[in-house]
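Hi U.,

Before I forget, here's the chain from the pilot set. I'm dumping it here mostly so it's searchable later in email.
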Amino acid sequence: MPAGRHVAIIGAGAVGVISAIEALREGHRVTLIDPGDPGGEQAASYGNAGWLSSHSVIPPAEPGVWKKVPGYLMDPLGPLAIRWSYLPKALPWLIKYLLSGWTAARVETTAFALRDLLKDAPLLHKKLAEEAGVPELIERNGVMHVFTSRGNFDNDLGWRLRKKVGVEWLELNADEMRQREPDLHPRYTFGVVVEEAGRCRDPGAYVGALANHAIASGAKHVRAKATGLKLNGGKLVAVLTETGEIACDAAVVAAGARSKQLTASIGDPLPLETERGYHVVIENPEVGPRSSMMASDAKLVVNWTNKGLRAAGTVEIAGLEAAPNWKRAEILRNHLVGMFPKLPKDIPASRVKTWFGHRPSMPDGRPCIGYARASRDIVYAFGHGHVGLVGSARTGRLVAQLVSGKAPEIPLAPFAPDRFL
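Structure:
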């Protein structure tokens, strides 16, 4: 492929802006296309839990999860909720979701693939943050998982697979946990610390800083909504937007949950869905964790950010257009207070901030990274689900390698877009 291509990158989220930085590094000309502010409140990156969990290699669906589907439909406030009104549209995706985790062998295949994508991610992000002038936003200080019993950990397929793919951790008994986390509820009696992992102190500010770095390095930001891709004889000639055409000879589709329409327009009807997510932030909390942590019973991540103590997690399947169910954010707040009993039960509403957004998710828990079938001038980079921020650093490198026609640094067959076509 020719050097010095004009690469139009659709989407200025974490994947898009890092792809821009890496494409510039390869000597290409870059135009970022996004109607919003990079890292703004409308972006999935903004609401991320802030974990750089290089061990997040287990897909959402595991063997036996199909037994829980009736509960998901009946409980609108559970860890995974499915709105009845959206079920007919979601059903094809849900079937693929269940099948992808039907056996331990299928989950293991995904775990090995995601390990390749996520390994060393905190280090890669630290280097990017330093380049962008915000090194303080990335910390490589490990994360903790807490359990109500040792048995809950020992019986978890995910941790057995993490060991198999090379993740290491430090185990803590109840006394050791109390020494590290004196404010944590005593119901948690066992924990593990994954020391290779890290965190981002402000995901929105981090993505914004990376975008500014890309622009300062020569990228152009066009504030427009991309509506399609224009091909001529198998060659890309332009990205179509609501305000006109942008001529280019390469494009990257990194538009998150809104990538589906773009890929379908050129003959790739991919099963992309939005796992709607919520977070709650308590400003200036009186107590909280010393480490970033995940509670196995509540299925949420708790992380210190520059804006306060953030709790994020859970999934809602209801599409792109449905209104938020803010009771789900309230549940997160209640879980947070339940984890740390010394937090006041009557925290003023002015100190509690909530957010809602869209995770772009493929049913097997693996993103799409690879060429479009219609043209190798078009690269797909979306569908990261729960590993969007942590996975963005290596994804951006892979995108630049594909645009340049170079061999990718990890095997991309598990992420091939055509695996569902």
